[in-house]
Each structure stands twice: as structure tokens, then as C-alpha cells.
Amino acid sequence: MRKKLVSTVHDYNILLVDDEIGIIDSIGTVLKRNGYMFKGCTNPHDAIDAVRNEHFDLLVLDFLMYPIHGDEVVKQIRRFNKEIYILLLTGHKDLAPPLETIKQLDIQGYCEKSDNFDQLLLLIESGLKSINQVRTITKFRDGLNKILQSVPRIYQLQPIDSILEEILVQIMPIVNSTNAFILVDNPTEENKDNKSIFRGIGKYKADLDSFWLMLTSEFITNIGTARAEKTNVFHEEGIIIPLINEYQHSLGILYVESLDRDDGLALLEIFSNQAASSVSNAFLHSLVNVKNEQLNNTYIQLKRNYLDTVQALRLAVDAKDVYTRGHSDRVAYYSVELGKFIGLGPKDLQTLKLSGLFHDIGKIGTANDLLLKSEKLYPEEYEEIKKHSLTGAHILSVISFFKDVIPIVRSHHERIDGTGYPDGLKEDDIPYLAKIISIADAFDAMMSDRMYRSRLERDNIKKELLRGVGKQFDYHLVKSFIEIMDKLPPTEDIIMDDLSIEY
Ligand SMILES: [Fe+2]
Fold first, then answer.
1. Rounded to the nearest whole angstrom, what is the distance from the C-alpha of residue 443 to the centroid of ligand 1?
2. How far is the CA of 391 from the centre of ligand 1 (A)?
3. CA of 416 to the centre of ligand 1 (A)
4. How does pLDDT run across 124-150, given as a tens digit for each residue?
5. pLDDT, tens only, 149-192
6. What own/partner pairs with CB < 8 Å and gap ≥ 24 does 488-496 have?
7. What is the Å distance from ligand 1's center to 328 Cα?
8. CATH class of residue range 9-135
9. Which of 194, 211, 241, 293 is the right S-S partner for 206, CB 3.0 to 4.6 Å?
């Protein structure tokens, strides 16, 4: 077991320097009697070498020495050692070095030599207290530095096992230990049998089942106490620290063996707070991931169900009107081809495709006899038919997936000159993609036989489209469409089965 770091007089090394062996003997006797560890040295040069080569916490030296005086010894030592605490012994006060020199050389105290060593002992004792404080501060500073360096590592999002492992690896040098373990609850849904998550290091490196066998009943009780009381519990040569998150929930415990119970404990508590946060963070993250996945799956399912429904509706519309069967597929196809030709991006192409497929979905609400009427429609009948673009937009508004498609479906019968429906939009107020659908829609109508007329020749269609420029259609879009028109496949070959092709 590592020696416990407590502040006793044995923890400090003192170097006593005087060129008179008698003085060293008498001071040494007093030091020994008081339990101090010291080394005596009669040669000032040897003393400098000793400080250079060995570790001393405190230097007690005579001022008047041969061949060099104490202030010179200090001057040389201070060139390479700023930490050592120095007490200077002076003879008669007239022979003491000036106060200025004492300050300059960073000598922490001085006293006159006498047969009574009480004053010297007091100075040594207060010197050692200062040294202890400096040690504590240094240890804390180093420990906090290590914590600061390790915190980003334990906060990295990774599997919980790796985080626990990282916590142990990072904490060992901070508290100068080799044996530790961490045990946390597993709140995730897949943990049906409530098994804890465990990671051990040093003699506790084991799997969870073997680990439980290593624990005495007293140890298990102490772990339970630490968790229930949310307090540190000392167990044998270690400490059990509960891991508490920011909501004061106990997540598990950290056990570290061979602990420095004074300063080390404070560092350990700081670190374990960080560790608890990182564990809590990791669990939250995995919970969010699981929920996200569930949400995603639900959304995909919803989308699929809705697409199935709308697809069925679309086919029902096509089935209603034998003369326009396959029309939606072709409008989608032509629109996408025109979109590609003018360089639209994948998102617009997908919107175009869905808009084409569903542009007449609103006709599901139009009476059959109107759709199939071969004679000229009465104005009120025409008004009825015109409702389909708005009805279509309403049907699609049920699901957010169609949010980009809705305005296109709504506006596919708008005209550049503002005489279209349902809103009488003009020019740039008409959604750009709706202007594309409008051309594709008209093109397919002219390419198809109707009860009252036969399909038009392609040259005539071009003329018709050009005639509509500025009234019904956008000039540039018509021009582009005419460029691709002759390359379009025969109407019967166009079927859009897949609703979700990504461009
Ligand atoms: Fe339409």
C-alpha cells in the first residue's frame, strides 16, 4: 500500500549548515529530540552541492562561516533553487547581515544563535507549516490542471463503457492511485434485467460477475450507504464517492483506493462531479438517440402510410377519368425533365415530381359526370371543376411532408396574365415550379386524345405553347421546354412508380 501523505515532521528534510561541528551537534540533538529528519554539513561548498543533488525542504545555516559566509551560500543556492525555505543563524546582532540582503536573497527568517533553541524551533515549525501550505497549493494546482486536461476527454460523446474507462484512467494520476472502480446504473431501455455498468482498474479489472464476488458484504453495504445517503464513505484504505448528477439523482459510485484523504479527497470530489455530469450526459445522449430513432421510424411509417393513401387517391382520380389516365405520371415526368434541363437542384426536382403526381388530386372531389362530360361545360360547371386545385392543396396539407408541394398544386392553374385560378396570381407571384407544372400539364393535354378532339402534332403543340407565352405561360420556360420536347419519350412509356426517388 502506498504510504499515506500526512503532514508529520518526518515528511520534511532539513539541511543544517555550520562550520562549527559543535553547533551542528547541539542543534541536531534538539532537532532529533523533536522528531525532525536532518543532515548536517560543516563545509558551505558541500552544502551548496547537497542542495543541488538532494531534496531538502528547509535550510538552516550560519551566517559567519569559513571559507564563505552564509549570505554567499544562499546567493549561490538561489541561482538554481528558489523553493527551499531558508533560516539564517546570526551571531551577535551587530554581525548580522543587513535586512536588505536578507530580503534580496529571499531568506524567510533569521535568529540569533543562543544556547536556548526555543526560538529556532519555533521558526522551524512555522517554516514547515509554510512549506506544507505551498505543497498543498502546488498539489491542488497540479491536480486541477490534470482535471482540466482530462475533462474534455471524459465529455467526448462515446459509448458509456469507454467514458467510464476514461474516467478511471484520468483519475488515477490525479489522486496517485492504481486501484479503482466505477459502478453506474444503466437506465437505457435495452437493460431489462437492471444490470449495472461496471469498469475497474488495477486489482478491480474484472467483468461485472467476477467483480461482485470480490466484494465483502461490508463493502456492498458501504456502497449502498454512499448511494442512499449521497455521501462519501470510507472503506478500508479507499473511499466510495457517490456520483450525483445536476438533478441530484444518484447515478452510481466511484471507489478509489489508497487515497490521500486530505487534499486528494477534495480533488477527487471535483473530478467525480465532472465524471457524474459526463455519465449523465452520455445517458441523455443515448436516450435522445433512441428517441430520435423511434421518432424517425414513426415518421417514415407515417409518411409511407400517407403516401400509400395519397397514391391510392391519385390512382382513383386517374381511374375516374379514363381520358386522362396516366396524366399525373406524365406531368410529373415532363416537369422533372424540364427542371433538370434548366438546372434545378435535387430538392426542387423532388418537389416537382410530387407536385406533378398530385397536381390534380383535388379532382377526387369533383363529380364524375362533370369530369366525363363531353359537351361544353356550363359556367357553373366550370367553376366546380376549378375548385380542384384548392381541394388538392387542402388534401395535401394534412402532412408536413407535402409543405413544399402544396403551393404548387394550389397554383398550377394560375396564368402569367393574372386570369388563372384560384388566386388570380400574376407573373412572379406565381410559384416558379407551378409555372413548370402548368406547361407540362398543357403539353400532356395536347398530346392526348380527348372526347372532343384528337391529339395535336408536336409542331402545333409548339405553336400553341408559344401562343400562350405572356398570357398563360412563362416565356423562358416555354423556350426551354420546346428545346427538350422532341427528345421526350412516347406518352405510353411514362410511368412514375416510385414516389421517393432522390435526385
Ligand atoms: Fe389541374
1. 12
2. 11
3. 16
4. 999 988 888 888 888 777 777 777 777
5. 777 777 776 778 888 888 888 888 878 888 999 999 887 666 56
6. 488/334, 488/337, 491/326, 491/330, 491/444, 491/447, 491/448, 492/326, 494/326, 494/329, 494/330, 494/333, 495/326, 495/329, 496/328, 496/329, 496/332, 496/333, 496/353, 496/356, 496/357
7. 9
8. alpha beta
9. 211
Tell which CATH classification among 3.30.450.40, 3.10.20.340, 3.90.180.10, 3.40.50.2000 matches the domain 157-289: 3.30.450.40
How far apart are the CA of 315 and the centre of ligand 1, in A? 15
Domain ranges within the chain, ordered by starting residue? 9-135, 157-289, 321-493
Q: How do residues 278-296 score in pLDDT, each as one tens digit?
A: 888 888 877 777 788 888 8
Mean pLDDT across 467-474: 94
The pLDDT value recorded for residue 3 is: 36
Those residues with Cβ within 8 angstroms of residue 157's Cβ, 6 or more apart along the chain or in another chain? 281, 282, 285
Q: Ligand 1 mean position to 468 CA, how many Å?
A: 17
Predicted model pTM: 0.49
**Residue 475, H or E segment:** helix 475-485
CATH architecture under which domain 321-493 falls: Orthogonal Bundle (1.10)
Ligand 1 centroid, distance to 346 Cα (angstroms): 24
Same fold flag, 157-289 and 321-493: no
Compute, in angstroms, the gap from residue 359 CA to the centroid of ligand 1: 6
Q: How far is the CA of 413 from the centre of ligand 1 (A)?
A: 6
